[in-house]
Design goal:
By secondary structure, the chain is an alpha/beta fold. It contains eight helices and six strands.
Length: about 180
């Protein structure tokens, strides 16, 4: 009987959904990576594209250990991108990253695709929102997409099946402490 329940919960039709993790609180990427780890543990193929990140975080170091079921690609560069006035090199990175995301989503090769930090990119208009929505809504049946980052546009929220907004209540950053290796990065 348990096998029937497991089969029902893992059928491709059941899996497909659009998730959004947004808000000003910590934990958006962490939540998405938790979903990715869970999916790999159940034999699903996962790709994580990190749009605004370019440094060697713990997840970047760990991802090759879960290959080939998990693929993680850094699309950003070390340091912060100015989303209001991005440098030409940053715009080129975003365009190449969006092209890769579009190809991976439409390929059907993955059960779960995480587009980490894409929400602020869409909010800033650096990737056309209508184009992104068309790609997201036209994904293969059974594919789940997880979009993370602050300022998720209202149209994305309306299109999603699951939306979680992280709100900061208390964090040691507020006291001036820095990110801890292995926890925040």
């Amino acid at each position: 009987m348990q096998d029937d329940a497991d089969q029902r919960l893992t059928s491709r039709d059941h899996l497909g959904a659009l998730y959004i993790y947004t808000g000003d609180g910590k934990g958006k990427t962490t939540a998405a990576l938790g979903e990715a780890l869970r999916a790999v543990g159940r034999g699903l193929k996962v790709c994580v594209l990190q749009f605004l990140k370019g440094r060697q975080t713990g997840e970047v170091v760990a991802a090759p250990r879960l290959a080939p079921e998990l693929r993680l690609v850094l699309l950003g560069r070390p340091g912060r991108m100015n989303l209001k006035a991005p440098a030409p090199a940053d715009l080129a990175r975003l365009a190449a990253g969006w092209d890769l995301a579009r190809r991976l989503i439409t390929s059907g090769d993955y059960d779960l695709v995480v587009l980490d930090e894409i929400n602020p990119v869409l909010d800033a208009g650096l990737i056309p929102l209508e184009e992104a929505l068309a790609v997201f809504q036209g994904r293969p049946p059974g594919m789940t997409l997880i979009l993370t980052g602050r300022r998720a546009p209202a149209a994305l929220i309306a299109a999603a099946r699951v939306v979680t907004e992280m709100h900061p209540v208390k964090h040691y950053f507020q006291g001036g402490l820095r990110a801890r290796r292995g926890i925040e990065w």
